[in-house]
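Before relying on records like the one below, remember that each one covers exactly one chain. Contacts with other chains, cofactors or solvent are not represented anywhere in the record.
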Amino acid sequence: MLVTKKLTFTSQEQRAATKACLSFGGLCVFPQKPKEILTLLPDTSVKNQEPDDMSIVERKLYLVDRVNHEWRRQFFSGLPNYLARYFADRYISIFKKEGRAKAAKFLTEKMGDELQRRVSVVLYRYRHLPTYNKIQLMSEDIDQFDFDEDEAPSLGQLQFNLEVIKPKKPKSRLLAELELDELKDMAFKISKIMNRSFNLLNKKYAGETEKEISDGLLGIYAELSELTLSFGFVAPCKKKNPKKRTADDVYGDIFRMLDEKFWLTNLKKAKKIMREHLAIAMGQVSKRASAYCSYDCVREHKEQQAKNWEYIQNQILVDEETKEECAMEDMVLKSVSNPAIRRHELMARTRGCENIADEMGLCGLFLTLTAPGKYHNTYKHGGFISHWSGASPRDAQIYLNGVWSRIRAKLGREEFRWFGIRVAEPHHDGTPHWHLLLWCKPEERDAIVKIFVDYATEEDKHELMKKGMFDYSARCDVKDINKEHGSATGYIAKYISKNIDGYAMDDAVSDETDKPIKDMAKNVSAWKSRWNIRQFQFIGGAPVTTYRELRRLANLDKAAYMSILHSQKREGLLATYRDMTENDMGPHLPNTMLTKPVIMKRLGDAYKPTIKHESNSVVQTMESADEGNWQGYVMGQGGPFVKRAALIVRNAYEELPFASRYSETIRKVEGILAAGKFIKTRVRTWTIQNKVKKFDELEAEALALDSSAAAPWSSVNNCTDDPEKDQKGQVSDKLSKILTPLGKKPESLDEHALNAFMKGSSLNLHDGRKVKIRSGYVDEDGNLRPPELMEIEKEPEDLRWLDFKGWPEPPNESKTDEYQQPNLSIFPEYEFGDDEWPLI
């Protein structure tokens, strides 16, 4: 209990705090500014009693400073633990060194006012995502949730309201706070709930006729979709229109909602998005902290890339027919997955488009499209933007897509013809903006610019009024391509390079971050991956997939040609070389310089595939693709305005029924259709295998050397002599030693928890430790190491961003008393009511 000598608030602060509480139904409390914090004194007349319902962080603070506990709770209530721990440690450190007043000032400045509002708005956006405690309770309840065999369950019986279920612990851990093993456990439990519901729905929608079965599948899908929505996720759906949806369209989606892997993928994605969104709200993503994306995002992206490359290096491709082996990394480096090749292809396509425009006499426009101010969160010079609506970079991308779709529809109605390239890149705070390079007829240029400006400034137009004048430069920009100042490709080349690998920009500095562009390329790559934003898109022209297939076809002929050359001796190759003209390969070299590798290279570079077809247009198109001539390829296909139905060369697909994980039909490219004639381009079937022998093969070899060893029967069996022994007993010896001091035995563990543990999930011992089964492996000496039980340690949070100098300060502009509700209109595909929420 506290008493005060004097504690006053301004009327403006009282109104702001009251409106904040009402706007969230009491979910969050905005910080008040005590005028005289030092006047808060303990009431010695009443015995201090420890408050109930304190989190671990709040209790830690309470033990250090009980006086300011009630006032301090407004800052930590609802804040994720991994962020609350940092601020709590900083508060305690300042409290011990400089006293209560300085510590309270730290909370007020760093966690109060605008920062508290921003975090609350973001948490509000993700409030319906499942938490670990709630899923645990639902998993326990579903085991007791049973129906009579003859009683058909209703939808109401299968609905689980996450808001009604109260966690047993004082604070339910948010999705953003969970570790990978906890996400695996949560995915397992959700899939168990979904499968149990599916079994009950099977009884409800049981049918005999084909129509009854089809209607039953649609009914099952509809109810499982509702259950999926209760977890905060949109149900997978092939066809958005329910009226056109058939049973064949939904059975694969039903299998997805039952699959543990599907839920794990979505939970991991939602966790990353939620953490990054909170990092944006806290000021972690900005020019003065970490540009484009957070430190954690960059670190996780680099780690994932390293894991991917390690996997690629450890795999080989084996031809199923000839058994020929090829290193997987060589194939990857030759594909567009290689950033250098991707950049070369983009530049070749851009140059081809410019050449087409020059031949047709078109003019070029360089347009920039930016989102309104409410989508931006931090000023470039530092400081939070007070009218930020809580939008994420993905929300801004959805807005830009919506604006551009309306512009394209308007241009189509006006029958304007144009084509071009679109590049999406981030501002320093992660908000995307677009650069568009378009070519159009000179006489249509002004009308196209007007349509672009009108739609780009349609939303929040009042922001663009400056001193009574309308200035759209902050929202969009228009530049004409002037050949005297440089080519159109030169305009866009910088944006292509800086968003891939920063090639040829070693000394260039970004205007957004004041840092070298080449160093920031990794941040852009991580940003794009985290928010699933497509960076480059060509508008109009022929498809690039067909262009790549034509180049593949030419390479098939070249591979056979090079194989023949390899079988010849130097004398034969030299004779072939002398027969080639200088137009094919340049001036001839003297014989002393012509070693076999040199001759092979020159003959290979001079090779031109033999293309036979009745149509000259098809032949020219295929030859242009082989030469990397995008202009010739597009014009051969019908020009930059060609419709897909009018293409003379298109991809041919092979359909594989029930080939996917969810028993769906898979379509894969098999070849091309050139003016109705099928040409196969995928003539070889490759399988992926490990470079090293598999574990079970090495184990078999090891057992062959020791005839006394019994054959193993499971992945966690250390060559036991009793193959019939129960699986739980295989780890009971070491597990018993750990559990005995806790008063538990392996046999007493929950069956589902033990099954998940045996599959690779970790086991929480509720004393701060976790254990996990490490898979068997082969050590550096080639010895077979059996599976074993081991303790795992939790990696510390990377919170370096909270220590950066120049923490964003609130803007200098006068603040309004009106509290802004989260802007849910940034989700144009959905309309939200009072009880609805944005979905992942």
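The longest strand covers residues 418-426.
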